[in-house]
Structure formats: structure tokens, C-alpha cells
Sequence to fold (346 residues):
Amino acid sequence: MQDINSFKKLLDKPKRIVIVPHVNPDADALGSSLGMASFLKKKGHEVKVISPTDYPAFLNWMKGNDEVMVYNDGNESAANDIISDAEVIFCLDFCSLNRIDKMEQPIREAKAVKVLIDHHHGKEDFADFECWNTKAAATCELIYQLVVDMGEQQLIDKHTAEALYAGIMTDTGSFRHPNTTKHVHEVVAELIGLGADASKVSKLVYDNNSLNRLRFIGFALSERLEILEEYNTAYFAISAEDLSKFNSRTGDTEGLVNYALSIQGITMAAIIIEREDAVKLSFRSIGDFAVNELAAKHFEGGGHKNAAGGISRVGMKETVEKFLKLLPEYEKQLHSNQKKQEIYLT
Ligand code: 5GP
Ligand code: MN
Fold:
């Protein structure tokens, strides 16, 4: 945050505050939103978290979950009133307003002071205060640091610490991705010091599967995973029918793409999912291969170098064809990156 003193001043007196995570919030988006909400409430503010859409049930344990308003759950009109009446709006874990779906227009038009806290690339210039660092592993890491910089660490209780811990844990792939820095470990050590139970959070997030979900993962791995050795690429294509066959719920496909990336010799992994309104794509990569650039160029998307996503509006079959057709454009990069990895790992 460039101007921490003005930011502190903004929050000096009780205000009406709205907090917004990105569409389909993950643990970092929801954890940062509920963590920030709890912190701001302790400072005496009136806070409402409004999520553009629903999110996976394995995040429901976070304190404050019951009070989250889901915008597209028939709450549009009530939410719009709260947004237009807000004095401050926090935008968390996204940096361009097209990441909040139908909330884009009301948030854009709101007269409130806007605060952006995020670690993604492709920032739009819309906020009055920015705490934006693409080198940070998670928005939760940025929020923890911001609260420390404000000198108000004592307002982080056990529940807030656990929400923030969850965001850092998942965005670093359980402290395995290259974004796992010394600072990340320092922050989580502090969070544990503030009462976060690391083992409990890990169990709540990762060991909360329905049998349907496990069966679905088994099906996807055996029937829907394709390997394109010549492009060091692996992908899943999951149809709407596949999802309904396994009674798939929000979040059931999360993490699946990582199995594809774990295969020897794979530089890029993708999952292409036929959702109700569009086809959703998620990309993962290793090393220098930047999937956020591919997602931005071909699928209206973005994200991080090694984890990105996008959408396609041309139907499932056409989307898979489009993805396969663009691979030759990246063939050299996909190969050379794999070679570099082999050297790096020996
Ligand atoms: P996931 O594949 O887990 O949904 O997302 C991976 C990363 O890419 C996350 O940081 C997420 O915020 C970002 N991302 C996913 N989908 C989109 C998208 O459609 N547009 C943009 N700009 N970023 C996305
Ligand atoms: Mn994040």
C-alpha cells in the first residue's frame, strides 16, 4: 500500500463497507474476504461480504460464511442497494472488474472509495487504494502484511488466522509451488502463533470429499485424460453430461488439473469444462511457460504465470478443437521448457 497513513485514516471511523471476492471464489478469495471482514468488524465497521457466485462446500467452515451474500442467488437487487450505499468497497483476489461477473457494473458505478488487494497480473486502474503485488503468493499473505503494517496484528484472532492460512496454503499448493517464499513461511508461522491450527485447516479443505467426488476423479483420470506427448501437454475435457452423471457440485473439479501436471514430461496441463453458461478452461504449467499469456490471448482470461484460466463461448467440441489447434504455436516453448526442467531437477 503506497499511502498507509491515508488508508489508516480511511478506516479510522466506523464505515459501511462491502467486500467482494472474484467469481467462483477459491480459498484465497474467500479467506481474504472473511479474514478482512472479521478484522474490519473488530475495528467497528459495518461489513457485508458479497460474492458474485457460490463457492465449494469445503470452504463453508470459515467463520462468517453464514453471512456471505451470494449475488447471483436472487440477491441482485438487495446487493445493489448495499453496494450503492457503501462508503468503502474492498476488491479482493482480483484486479480487473470483469472478474466479478454481473457485479461489474454496480461496483464500477458505486461512489464508494475502492480498495484493491491482489496478486494477479493485468491490473485495471479503478481503485483509490492499491495493495497489489504479483510476487505475493496469495491475497491472504498481502492482507496479513497490511494489517501488520497498520500495527493492528492484535486484531487477528484464531478464526481470521485460519481463514488467511487456508488462502496461503491453497495458493501455494500446500507450500509446494515456486511462490512459496521465506516470507510465506514467516507469515504462516505468525498465523499459527495467532492460533491457526494448520492440520485442522488442511483436513477441512482437502479431506472433505464426497464419495461422488472421488468416483468422479477416478472416472476423469481413467476416461477423460489425454496426453499429447509431442506438445508436453496433458488435458481433461469434461462434458456437462459427465458432471451430472456424478452429481458434481461446485468445487468437485478443483485441483483435478494438477494430476495432469504431475505426469512426467508435462509442461502444460489444462482442464476444459462444459459449464451452463460457457466453457471454462483452467491451465497449469511448470517453469517459464506462461499460461496466463495463453489464456489472455485465446480465452479472454488471465491469472498467474503457472496457474491461469479463461472462458470460451463456442461450445465444448469447438473449444477443445481450438485448444488443440493452438498448440503448434507453442510447440517450441513447451519443448524447451521441459528440457530446462530436466536440467533443473538433476
Ligand atoms: P483456477 O484454474 O484455479 O480456476 O484459476 C487459476 C488462476 O487463474 C487463479 O488465480 C484465478 O484467479 C485465475 N483465473 C481463473 N479463471 C480466470 C478467468 O477467466 N480470467 C482471469 N483473468 N483469471 C482467471
Ligand atoms: Mn489468490
About this structure: The longest helix spans residues 316-344. The chain has a mean pLDDT of 96. The chain has two domains: 4-206, 211-345. The CA atoms of residues 23 and 45 lie 24 Å apart.
